[in-house]
C-alpha cells in the first residue's frame, strides 16, 4: 500500500489518515477474499461435474483461468502484497487484466449465431479494455516508490505519486464493454422470444438473466469506487475497487458458465460435457425444450 500526498495536511495527519484508510481497505480485502473462497467451495460440486469431468473446450479453459487466477490474486492481496517486498507490478497486473466479460461475450456470439460483425465488435472492445487495464496497471505500479529509510525495515511501505484520474482508464472501458455485451444480449433475446421466457425459452432466459446480474455486480463496484474517489480524493480508499474486482469477475463470470450447464443438464441436451454451448451455431443451440414444462418440473436452477 502507498501513502498518498494530501494537500493541507501535516505529515503526521497524513500518516494517521493513511493508517486508517489501510485498515478499512484491509477489511474489504479480507471480506472479498472470504466471499470468493465461500463461492468457490459452494460451487465446487457443480465445478467438478461441469468443468473437470467435461471435455476440454475454450469455455472450460476460460473458466479455470478466471476462477483460479482471481483466487491467486486475492492471496497476493491478503498476504504477499501489503506485507512484503513482492513487486507491486505483479499484483497490479493480475488485478486489472483478468476479467469475466469474455464469458458474457461468448453468449452474445451464441445469440447472434456467430455473426462476424458482432464477433469483431465484441473482440475489438474486449481487446481495447484489456490493453487499457494493462496500461493503467503499469502506470500505477511505476508511480509507487519506497519510503526512504523505512522500506528496508518495513517492506511494503511506499508512497504513491499517481493521478487518481488514471483509474478512469480502467472503469470507463470496462463499463462500456459490459454494457455493450449486455444490451446486445437482451435485445436479441427479447426479439427472438416473445413467449413466456423462463418456461419456453429457458436457455435464452438464463443468458439474459445471468448477464444482467453480472453487469449489475460490476456496475455497483465501479460506480462505488468512482464515488469514493470523488468524495475522498487522494485517499487510499480508492484501492477498495482493486480488491473487490477479482471476486466480482470470478463469481459473476463463473456463474454464467455453471448456470447455463445446469440448464443443459436439466433439459438433457447433452452438450455441456462434449462441447461449448456458447460456441454452438443456431442448429446446435436449443433455446426451448420440446416440452414447455420440462424445465418447470425439474429442480430449480441456481442463481447468482
Structure description:
- The protein has helices spanning 11-42, 44-52, 58-83, 88-97, 101-111, 116-142, 168-192, 197-200, 202-231, 240-266; strands at 2-3, 144-146, 158-160.
- It is mostly helical.
- It has one domain: Rhopdopsin 7-helix transmembrane proteins (Up-down Bundle).
- A 3-stranded mixed β-sheet has the order 1-3-2.
- The longest helix has 32 residues, at 11-42.
- The chain is globular, with a radius of gyration of 21 Å.
- Mean pLDDT is 70; it is low at 82-89 and 281-304.
Distance between the termini: 32 Å
**Order of helical and strand elements:** EHHHHHHEEHHHH
Global mean pLDDT: 70
Briefly, what CATH class? Mainly Alpha
Keywords: Membrane, Transmembrane, Transmembrane helix
Domain DUF6533: 28-69
InterPro entries: DUF6533
Protein name: DUF6533 domain-containing protein
Amino acid at each position: 500500500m502507498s501513502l498518498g500526498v494530501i494537500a493541507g495536511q501535516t505529515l503526521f495527519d497524513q500518516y494517521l489518515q493513511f493508517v486508517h484508510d489501510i485498515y478499512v481497505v484491509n477489511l474489504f480485502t479480507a471480506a472479498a477474499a472470504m466471499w470468493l473462497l465461500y463461492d468457490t467451495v459452494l460451487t465446487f460440486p457443480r465445478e467438478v461435474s461441469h468443468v473437470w469431468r467435461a471435455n476440454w473446450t475454450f469455455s472450460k479453459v476460460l473458466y479455470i483461468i478466471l476462477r483460479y487466477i482471481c483466487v491467486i490474486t486475492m492471496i497476493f492481496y491478503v498476504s504477499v502484497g501489503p506485507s512484503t517486498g513482492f513487486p507491486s507490478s505483479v499484483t497490479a497486473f493480475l488485478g486489472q487484466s483478468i476479467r469475466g466479460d469474455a464469458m458474457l461475450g461468448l453468449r452474445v456470439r451464441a445469440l447472434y449465431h456467430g455473426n462476424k460483425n458482432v464477433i469483431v465488435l465484441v473482440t475489438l472492445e474486449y481487446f481495447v479494455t484489456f490493453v487499457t487495464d494493462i496500461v493503467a496497471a503499469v502506470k500505477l505500479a511505476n508511480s509507487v516508490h519506497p519510503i526512504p529509510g523505512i522500506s528496508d525495515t518495513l517492506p511494503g511501505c511506499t508512497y504513491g505519486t499517481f493521478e487518481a484520474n488514471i483509474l478512469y482508464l480502467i472503469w470507463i472501458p470496462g463499463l462500456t464493454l459490459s454494457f455493450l455485451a449486455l444490451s446486445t444480449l437482451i435485445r436479441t433475446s427479447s426479439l427472438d422470444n416473445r413467449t413466456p421466457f423462463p418456461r419456453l425459452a429457458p436457455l435464452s432466459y438464463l443468458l439474459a438473466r445471468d448477464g444482467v446480474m453480472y453487469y449489475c455486480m460490476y456496475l455497483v463496484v465501479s460506480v462505488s469506487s468512482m464515488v469514493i474517489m470523488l468524495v475522498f480524493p487522494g485517499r487510499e480508499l480508492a484501492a477498495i475497487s482493486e480488491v473487490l474486482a477479482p471476486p466480482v469477475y470470478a463469481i459473476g463470470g463463473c456463474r454464467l458458465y455453471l448456470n447455463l450447464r445446469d440448464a443443459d443438464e436439466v433439459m438433457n441436451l447433452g452438450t455441456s460435457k462434449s462441447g461449448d454451448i456458447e460456441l454452438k451455431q443456431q442448429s446446435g443451440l436449443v433455446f426451448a425444450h420440446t416440452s414447455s414444462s420440462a424445465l418447470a418440473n425439474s429442480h430449480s436452477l441456481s442463481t447468482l
